[in-house]
Design brief:
- The protein is of the alpha/beta class.
- It has a single domain, classed as Rossmann fold, CATH 3.40.50.150.
- It has 6 helices and 12 strands.
- A hairpin with an 8-residue loop joins β3 and β4.
- α4 crosses α5.
- The radius of gyration is 17 Å and the shape is globular.
- The two termini are about 30 Å apart.
Length: about 220
């Protein structure tokens, strides 16, 4: 690929697309890849007797987790990587320089079956960082409308903004090879970074493009 498609979301298989990227052409990968735990197969996520589960487009991409071949390409084309699901993907990702913990509850003592946090691999630094942002079913610190969440494993824009703001600089190129609903690209655009998203589902690719198109350019 002679010229990278900056500020675009590409419909396609991420491995095939990444194979066309030059070495170290991306400043930072920020992504939440498949973990291989079967999330979203029915299209119904959540619901514990308190809040009814939400219906999404049924997916089968999480039947198989991130592969070694995909990870090798991610490392080849990027200078640094931040990858959610480290607890599920440690055998693929290997030893990391640091970790990022997203505290989803921001409160101790909740008696439920949901995870308290999510853990991301980071190739940057040699320390652990914690970001607190409530995001538990209908209890959210941001994007509180049911219409805001359109993907079964969607992350809050605030979480991706915090990561991109702390681990990249203005004008950097951010890649999300498992783009989903486009949250990483929305956050990158809001923070004056270039972005590329890759999404294998045509329906979610179109959703991601619409979300990014509706995101305002920064005024500063």
């Amino acid at each position: 690929m002679d010229k990278l498609p900056l500020d675009e979301i590409i419909l396609g298989d991420c491995l095939e697309v990444m194979q066309s990227f030059p070495d170290k052409s991306v400043d930072l990968i920020v992504t939440d890849p498949p973990y291989g735990i079967g999330i979203g197969g029915s299209g119904r996520i959540g619901g514990s007797g308190i809040v009814a589960p939400k219906q999404y487009i049924p997916v089968d991409w999480d039947d198989v987790g991130l592969t070694q071949e995909q990870w090798n390409e991610m490392q080849r084309i990027s200078k640094n990587q931040i990858v959610f699901g480290f607890n599920h993907l440690a055998d693929i990702l290997g030893k990391c320089a640091g970790i990022i913990v997203w505290d989803k509850k921001v409160k101790n003592g909740w008696d439920d079956n949901f995870s308290d946090c999510e853990v991301a691999y980071s190739s940057i630094g040699n320390h652990a960082k914690v970001y607190h942002h409530l995001w538990m079913g209908a209890l959210r610190a941001s994007e509180t409308s049911s219409l805001d969440r359109v993907h079964p494993t969607q992350k809050p824009i605030a979480v991706m903004e915090w990561i991109i703001n702390h681990y990249s600089a203005d004008g950097d190129l951010i890649l999300d090879p498992f783009c989903g609903s486009g949250t990483t690209c929305v956050a990158a655009k809001r923070l004056k970074r270039h972005y590329i998203g890759i999404e294998i589902s045509e329906q979610y690719c179109e959703m991601a493009r619409r979300r990014v198109a509706a995101t305002q350019e920064p005024m500063f």
